[in-house]
TrEMBL record:
Name assigned to this protein: GGDEF domain protein
Residue stretches making up the GGDEF domain: 192-329
SUPFAM superfamilies linked: CheY-like, Nucleotide cyclase
Protein keywords: Coiled coil, Phosphoprotein
Length: 331
């Protein structure tokens, strides 16, 4: 940590005293040290000055009319908190009660009258240095806090990108695997249903051959959008399973409920009427869906659920495509 350069950037000292003569003497003494100096005559003026501009240190007389130094110091602490500059209380009272009262009000240090000028200069210099060190420390802490927040934000964005399919902007296979494992364990504990929908775009190779890969990519995006809108709950996960295959994880959903979601997806795709002259079942792009549901048994894996959904999808294709077939997993 570098040392402060008070000569290049002189600190501002605020003198608060109702005695004009003492203010003048204090001003001269501080200016001889190279400091910038402002002065006010009472506590109210001190608070008003600090509201406009915070000095680097306040030399505050304890005994003043209207508002004494103890009250002024307490209000400074209340108003400015950690930003309050150090307060050096100047008091003619040299007893333990006055000293305790000064520190209770928030004074950083005190000095008694008659003022010992060498002591005053040393204490001002020490308080300014300490104040600068603390300000630098708070600044560095704030910088580290901001940097940490930015790094956390970047890490979250990186994690999001790692888990995202670049084309469709839905979850990728890696994210699907993680989400399924997580939901399987949770619902095994709760003994609640978990369902899976596997979707495959019918005759997608023919679509690519007919309209080109760019149109194929656009078709995949539209299907992903329909799936995303159909899986409305926060825990639902829509992912690209591979190629033209998609998958939907539906926690706390029975096989019957998942079948309804799958039919809704198929219906909404039909309503978009994406022309597909190369399809063997329709003039438009269609989906075949395999659905499986189970209450996960403890200490098992979701492999059986995936296999049953895959088998149901295969059955949907064999039976003529553009349909939903469901399998209830027997355990």
């Amino acid at each position: 940590m570098n040392e402060p350069d008070f000569h290049r950037d002189p600190p501002l000292i605020l003198i608060v005293d109702d005695e004009k003569t003492l203010r003048l003497v204090l001003r001269r003494a501080m200016e001889q040290e190279g400091y910038r100096v402002s002065e006010v005559g009472d506590g109210h003026q001190c608070l008003a000055f600090c509201t406009e501009q915070l000095p680097d240190i306040i030399l505050l007389d304890a005994m003043m009319p209207v508002m004494d130094g103890f009250t002024c110091c307490a209000q400074l602490q209340e108003r400015f908190g950690q930003k309050c500059p150090p307060v050096l209380m100047i008091t003619g009272l040299n007893n333990q009660e006055s000293v305790d009262r000064a520190f209770e009000a928030g004074a950083t240090d005190y000095i008694t009258k008659p003022i010992h000028w060498a002591v005053l200069r040393q204490r001002v210099r020490r308080l300014l240095h300490t104040h600068w060190v603390m300000a630098e420390l708070h600044r560095k802490i704030e910088q580290e806090r901001v940097l940490k927040a930015k790094l956390e934000e970047m890490n979250q964005e990186l994690q999001r990108l790692v888990d995202l399919d670049g084309l469709t902007q839905i979850a990728n296979r890696r994210a699907f695997d993680q989400a399924l494992q997580q939901e399987w364990k949770r619902l095994a504990r709760e003994q609640a249903p978990l369902s899976l929908i596997l979707c495959d775009i019918d005759f997608f190779k023919a679509y690519n051959d007919t309209y080109g890969h760019q149109a194929g990519d656009e078709c995949l995006k539209q299907v992903a959008d329909i799936l995303r809108k159909a899986a409305k709950r926060p825990a639902d996960v829509v992912a690209r399973y591979g190629g033209e295959e998609f998958v939907v994880i539906l926690p706390n959903t029975s096989l019957r409920g998942a079948m309804q979601v799958a039919e809704s997806i198929r219906s909404k795709l039909k309503s978009r009427a994406i022309v597909h002259e190369g399809s063997g079942v329709s003039k438009f792009v269609t989906l075949s869906c395999g659905v499986a549901g189970v209450i996960p048994p403890p200490k098992t894996t979701p492999d059986r659920l995936i296999a049953e959904a895959d088998q149901a999808l295969y059955k949907a294709k064999v039976e003529g495509r553009d349909r939903v077939v469901g399998n209830l997993v027997e355990v």
